[in-house]
Amino acid sequence: MSDQPRALLTADALRERITVMGREIRAAYGDDPILCLGILKGSFVFLSDLVRAIDGPVQVAFLGVSSYEGTESTGHVRITHDVNVSLRGFHVLIVEDIVDTGLTLDYLLRTLGVREPRSLKICTLLDKPSRRKVAVPLDFVGFQIPDTFVIGYGLDLDEYYRNLPYVGIYEGQPLPGR
Ligand code: IMP
Ligand code: MG
User: Fold this and answer.
1) At what angle do helices 11-29 and 44-51 cross, to 10 degrees?
2) CA 90 to ligand 2 centroid distance, Å
3) Residue 56, by phi and psi: left (phi above 0), alpha (psi -120 to 50) or beta?
4) Are residues 139 and 121 in contact, defined by beta-carbon separation less than 8 angstroms?
5) Using CA positions, which residue lies closest to atom 9 of ligand 1?
6) Does residue 90 form part of some domain?
């Protein structure tokens, strides 16, 4: 295929870092069960690799949110698919693809915090600190990246490119049908 996006993080770099993150996460929770709560849709690829890097008892659940159109956050966070289990008493680890303005996670911390989890922590593959509008406590971060729009490894532009096996830089590649 021609015109493949330029890689910011290769598949090898992702694999190496995620292996280490899995160990860091297990070490932080001891032998306790962890409920990994993937934020859809962007985190689905990262989550599937991450859970396989964490030893011991792990559960998986999903929460769908939407705040982006094109390359800009609308700032209005919406739950499009709620978790179908109670979070009460669980060590909940929110798994995100990327933290940009922080608005999504700020909303999620407030919304999920009242459901009485035993603990509530955040794990994100990517962090764009230069774009933050609200401070959010990040417990596990894969990579800090510069202020550039990235695609692939679950991250999309208008729902495309999620299947790219690495994190690439969006440089105006055309979308199908446009
Ligand atoms: P925030 O609420 O601005 O922190 O945005 C978080 C969400 O916006 C992420 O979960 C992504 O779905 C999306 N997002 C932010 N930056 C990018 C990017 O560079 N590429 C693709 N999606 C992004
Ligand atoms: Mg997302």
Assistant:
1) 60
2) 22
3) left
4) yes
5) 98
6) yes
- pLDDT tens for 116-175 read 999 999 999 999 999 999 999 999 999 999 999 999 999 999 999 999 999 999 998 888
CATH assignment of the domain containing 121 = 3.40.50.2020
Residue 168 has φ and ψ, to the nearest 5°, of -110, 165
* Pocket (CB within 6 angstroms of ligand 1): 42, 67-68, 73, 96-104, 149-151, 155
55 labelled catalytic? no
Contact 106, 78 (CB under 8 A): no
Do residues 53 and 21 make contact, with C-beta atoms less than 8 angstroms apart?
A: yes
Q: What is the pLDDT of residues 18-71, one digit of tens each?
A: 999 999 999 999 999 999 999 999 999 999 999 999 999 999 999 999 876 666
- Overall number of domains in the chain: 1
**Domain span at residue 136?**
6-169
